[in-house]
């Protein structure tokens, strides 16, 4: 995917325009200051003539006015030269670079729409069942993985929002700068005042391209994507809560199992019986339940806790399956839609290629 500018460095061109704009500002400011002094000197000279002042004083005043007028003309010449330089940079250097950038972004939106469409298809065809909790998976590793995914989603949402805002801000400021360089005359129509159009007043192509570009990016709405990612992160947070509950149930079951194992082992050792370390088979030994009712009570408690842990694992796995599948589908649907809408907007830009 090639979105690079081949006809020159866009950043360098914008920097040159900024430098020339600063020079233009300084020249215009100097000219305005000279105008103020010039107007005062003209008024002073007029007063001298009307009062019939000595010719020497009138001559000094006239010379001062002429010198100021000469400086004003020099400044205006500089303003005109800098303005032509800016216009040349804008229309012969900046415009081709912007045109190439827009074409590159069109290719980017096309590629991204195809990519997200393929991702959406893969998610929809994938096995919907996800197992994140089982007797062979440690709770800590699963919990940390979910937390990391949640944090990455929040980071993803922020980066996506910043990326879109950066695009919009760039085009907004670029178009705003250009609009300051043109007189925006209001056009009245039977339906009211028509929106300003650079093309109707014969503005150069740069103005038309940036106006269309600004309208295209302003129509881009990232809210659906932003919401889909945040909703997914929120559901991951809820999944973490279920995983935390499952982990607590696991710890309780493991504690009861170890306690039960110690008691059974002690029972056998006291009677000189080789039990073989198989706790599960202990309840099948004749006379075990009758000889030690405490062991039977512990076995019942362990069985109940094992069931509770199994139910907690099922809730985690069901929540993970639903969360990951539906969440990712919503995200990639939103991303595909966003890219296609952006592509349609960019294709409507009157870009002189």
UniProtKB/TrEMBL annotation:
Pfam families: DUF632 (PF04782). It comes from Vitis vinifera. This is DUF632 domain-containing protein. Residues 5-237 form the DUF632 domain. PANTHER family: FAMILY PROTEIN, PUTATIVE (DUF630 AND DUF632)-RELATED, PROTEIN ALTERED PHOSPHATE STARVATION RESPONSE 1. It comes from the Eukaryota.
